[in-house]
Amino acid sequence: MNQLEQLKKLSTIVADTGDIASIQRLKPVDATTNPSLILKAANQAEYAHIIEAGIKEAQKLPTEQARLQAAIEAIGVGFGVEILKSIEGVVSTEVDARASFDTKATIEQARRLIQRYQQHGIGRERVLVKIASTWEGIKAAELLEQEGIHCNLTLLFSFAQAQACAEAGVTLISPFVGRILDWYKKSTAQDYTADTDPGVLSVKRIYEYYKACNYNTIVMAASFRNTGEILALAGCDKLTISPTLLDSLSAENTAISCQLNSNNIMQQACLVQLSESEFRWQHNEDAMATEKLAEGIRLFAADIRSLEHKIATLL
Predict the structure, then answer these.
(1) pTM of the model
(2) CB 38 within 8 A of CB 76
(3) Angle between helices 159-168 and 276-284 (to 10 degrees)
(4) CA distance 29 to 88
C-alpha cells in the first residue's frame, strides 16, 4: 500500500479543497472548504454553474446588500452540495470571518447556511459549520450544538482555544499545524523536524488531553506544510490535507506507523473550566496564537471581500 492507503487505516482523511474534481479523484471521507478555497474554485470555468445559480437566486431580493449576502451564502452552500455528491461523510462550510467577534451574527448565519442545505435535501448531520475559534465564536458554537447544528472550530492555535472548545461541546476542532510552524520558523530562524515541529507537538498535546479527559470533540489536524507533519500525526482522529500533499502521500510506499493512539494515553488531571477572562488571558499569553488567529481572520475576510467584488460585478 502507498502511504495514503496506510494512513486511511489510522485516521479519517479529509480533503482540504473546494476543487470538486480533486475530491472525486482522491476519494476522501470528508471535505473542508474556506473562503480562500472557494475564491480559488470560483475562478475556474468548470464551476461557473454554481456561481450562476447563486446569482440567480440572489437577484430576487430587494436590496444590493441582501443580494450580495445571499449570493455569497448560496455559492458557499452550492460548492458544499456538489462536494457531498462525491463523498460519504460531511462537508465544512465557513461563516463569514467578519462575524468572528459577533456571537449573534455567527449564530444567525449558521442557521441560514443549514437552512440552505436543507432546501437542497441535505440534513444537518452532513454539514459542519466552520467558525473561527474566538471566544465569541466558541460561545456561538456552544449554542448551535444545543440546536443540533454541528460545528468545526477553525483557526485554532492555542491550548486555551482547544480547552474552551471541548468545554463548549463542539463537534470538531481544526488546529492549524503548518501556520504554527510558519510562526516559529520566522521568529526563531530555526529548522524543525517532524519530532520537534511546534504545530505537531501542539496537536499531540490537545489530542492527549481530550482523550485523557474523555472529551468527545474530534481533533482534525489542518494546514499542513509537508508530509512529515502529516505522518507524525498518523492516528489523529481526522487529518484534512490539500490535494497536492494527498498526491505526495499516494506516490510513496514507505511503511508508516501510528503515532497517536487513544489506548496509550497517560492519565492527567483535567483543568478547571475556563471563564471568559481566563480564556482571553491564557490566549493572550501565547504570542504565536494571538498573532496567527488575528492574521487568519484578516486573510479570510480579505478573500470574502474579493469574492464579493467578483459577485457584485455579476449581480
Answers:
(1) 0.95
(2) yes
(3) 150
(4) 6
What are the b/e assignments for 230-262, b being 16+ CB within 10 Å?
Answer: bbbbbbbbbbbbbbebbebbeeeeeebeebbee
Could you say which of 27, 130, 186, 238 is catalytic? 130
Q: How far, in Å, CA of 192 to CA of 229, rounded?
A: 10
Q: Which residue, 165, 168, 163, 175, is CA-closest to 272?
A: 163
Query: Measured in Å, how far apart are the chain's first and last C-alpha atoms?
Result: 49
C-alpha count within 13 angstroms, C-beta hemisphere, residue 32: 28
pLDDT tens, position by position, 278-313: 999 999 999 999 999 999 999 999 999 999 998 998
- Is the distance from CB of 37 to CB of 54 less than 8 angstroms? no
Please state, in angstroms and rounded to a whole number, the distance separating the CA atoms of residues 10 and 80.
26
Active site residue 130: yes
**Nearest to residue 134, comparing CAs of 90, 181, 101?**
101
